[in-house]
Amino acid sequence: MKKDYKEMKDLLMNKMKIVQFKDKQSICIVGPVNLPVKQGDFDATFQWYTWLTLDDMKSKEEVIQLIVQENLASKQQSSVLVYGDFFNDDDAIIRMHSICHTGDIFGSQRCDCGYQLHESMKMVKEHGCGAIFYLANHEGRGIGLFSKSLAYLLQEEGYDTVEANEALGFKDDMRSYEEAVKVLESLREKPVTLITNNPNKLKALKEHGLLADKHISLWGGLTETNRFYLNTKIEKSGHIVATKISV
After folding, report:
1. Terminal CA-to-CA distance of the chain, rounded, Å?
2. How far apart are CA 187 and CA 184, in angstroms?
3. Domain 5-138+175-237: homologous superfamily in CATH
4. Which residues are catalytic?
5. pLDDT digits over 61-74, tens only?
């Protein structure tokens, strides 16, 4: 059967939203896509959205035409998993999770990122409403995967995670949350509670307009190989030590 190109294009455009961003930029948000997830005993079906930042305002049709030329596979795009009635529910929890190629994918024990990602997904399901934002340009607190590998080499010589980033010429934290907050605003207008151990993250997000007054700490996944890393986050990055709070 011959495919109807117009029908296909209309179907896609009905799942796209373009919102104005800073400096004449725009963000194209696509979704939701039904995404059944299973990790061991945990399973849930999330609504998955992804987004692309554009240099100017484009139509939905122009975005569809653009993707073939942009070589997006060589770049990273962020996305978000939504659970429950995220737009309408009065009580929603969210995690702004920075991509960690080594921890999230390979299961590295040099950090607690993989643990936090998977526990946050469980917390959102148990709570009944929430979202996990997976921020693709946040690797190594914003220095990128290649630079992170260099920082890891320095850490093996005794530098802590903050010292290693600074030795390479970066600030301790290079992450920006402007895109994520803009996407969140397109999916929900009510306040949220943030899953994080880092009050500086909550402060940074609020500076970009996040409607959130409180956060839930998430501790766990401690190993002998990440103990120094976690202690550095507490001592130098202001992370709050707390027991995981069930919601």
Report:
1. 50
2. 5
3. GTP cyclohydrolase II (3.40.50.10990)
4. 173, 175
5. 999 888 888 888 88
